[in-house]
Specification:
Shape: extended
Helix content: 55-70%
Number of domains: 3
Number of helices: 7
Strand content: under 5%
């Protein structure tokens, strides 16, 4: 999402519905809403309300913690590891780490994966 401005509930519902559709969840159907609810851990009623533009999130406890402790809400989320600090990028994983994340364990398979990634990266230059 390009904008940093907060969205009203209707705009937020449209945004979530579009993003969900891109990710394979059709929020116009009960099945799509229930799958997204299951995958996110949110109640199905919340998914329905979000999609309908009738969802106003409750105040997050981190905001209250921040206010009580004299910290900004965003800073509290960053310190808790929920948000990345602005201007920082996550550490770039090595190809070997990515192979391990994918479940590749055999040295020959990892070597082939590394060679393939190297060739693909070279072709992009």
């Amino acid at each position: 999402m390009a904008s940093k401005q907060p969205l009203d509930p209707r705009q937020f519902g449209q945004y979530v519905t579009t993003r969900a559709r891109i990710k394979g969840y059709d929020l116009d159907t009960a099945d799509g809403r229930s799958r997204l609810a299951k995958d996110t851990g949110l109640p199905a009623n919340d998914i329905t309300a979000i999609a309908a533009g009738k969802y106003k999130p409750s105040v997050d406890p981190w905001k209250t913690f921040g206010e009580i402790l004299g910290e900004r809400h965003k800073d509290m989320l960053c310190m808790a590891g929920i948000l990345e600090p602005s201007g920082t990028r996550p550490r770039r994983k090595s190809v070997a780490e990515t192979a391990a994340d994918l479940g590749l364990k055999q040295p020959k398979t990892v070597a082939v994966f590394e060679a393939l990634v190297a060739a693909l990266l070279k072709s992009e230059r």
